[in-house]
Design a protein that fits this description.
about 5% strand, Alpha-Beta Plaits, 4 strands, 2 domains
Length: about 300
């Protein structure tokens, strides 16, 4: 579309929009619903990823230590652990700390259990190892098992029983989270395709309703670009309006619905930064414009063939 035709295209697009208000409103609503669902799913996927990230961050390795191991050996290996790749933090839990934690977790049953032990504390010392990349927990645990220094201070000398991190549960967790992330990408792509199809069909109906007008313009010698201009402009206007309504609806959801969801499941971390909303809004406008442009261009091909 030549710059000289821009004013004409905008005027004609506005005129077409007003004359075919029902069809135009239908197109705007279609785009609005499609983009709203896409935006809602993008934000929802971010929330799910936030929850997954919170769960993953809680994955840690507990390494139990032998009572006979010297404090120096325990401290030396702890310093060594802190220098390992993928190790974020290492905290030491004494026998007393372990017992206090046991009392807290078992509540009323703890006193009877401790009394039966005649005041002895059977709980071992331990390291709690948090990782930079929780998905690499298996390789970190394997490295810990093979370390000769840890083998010397492991509880009972058994490195396998001294390292606890819920291997099967962690494996299933990361498998499920990978499936969720793949499904999120696939569904966003599918929703985008569906939005394009809806937009294309809506514009095609609008063009079909004005096929005589297009035929007359062809007869008087109008170029393809001149004919296409108003329809493409109208498609872009409809897409922008639909995008604006979708953004407005998402803002209502963000301010009214999401806070209630977060309060209801406060034990999960599901913070979504506002920058992500801004990026999503920008992406929706861009996507809407692209759908309007390509949908209009493709829908008009059959009417512009020589």
């Amino acid at each position: 579309m030549a710059p000289s035709n821009l004013g004409y295209s905008i005027r004609e697009a506005g005129s077409h929009f007003a004359r075919n208000l029902t069809t135009s409103v239908g197109a705007v609503i279609t785009i609005f619903l499609s983009l709203f669902i896409i935006g809602l799913f993008i934000v929802g996927s971010s929330m799910v990823n936030s929850i997954i990230g919170g769960v993953e961050s809680q994955v840690s390795i507990n390494a139990y230590l032998d009572d006979a191991a010297s404090d120096d050996a325990v401290q030396r290996f702890m310093n060594e652990l802190k220098s390992w790749d993928n190790v974020k933090t290492v905290s030491f839990k004494s026998k007393e700390d372990a017992l206090a934690e046991y009392k807290k977790s078992t509540a009323s049953k703890a006193d009877a259990t401790i009394a039966a032990l005649d005041g002895e504390n059977p709980l071992p010392r331990s390291y709690t190892i948090e990782m930079e990349e929780p998905s690499q927990v298996e390789s970190t645990a394997a490295k810990l098992r093979e370390n000769s220094s840890f083998q010397q201070i492991a509880d009972g000398g058994d490195v396998n029983s001294s390292i606890v991190y819920g291997r099967e549960e962690v494996g299933r967790l990361f498998q499920v989270t990978n499936y969720i992330r793949i499904a999120a990408v696939v569904l966003v792509a599918l929703l985008t395709f569906v939005a394009f199809i809806f937009m294309n069909n809506t514009i095609r109906l609008s063009i079909t309703a004005r096929r005589r007008e297009i035929a007359i313009m062809r007869l008087v010698g109008a170029s393809n670009g001149f004919i296409r201009g108003p329809f493409v402009t109208e498609g872009v206007i409809q897409a922008i309006l639909g995008s604006v309504f979708a953004i407005g609806a998402l803002e209502l959801v963000r301010n009214l619905l999401f806070p209630k969801i977060q309060q209801g499941i406060s034990f999960f971390q599901m913070e979504v930064p506002y920058n992500l909303y801004l990026m999503t809004y920008g992406a929706l406008i861009l996507l809407g414009v692209l759908i309007g442009l390509f949908g209009s261009a493709i829908a008009m091909r059959r009417y512009l063939k020589v």
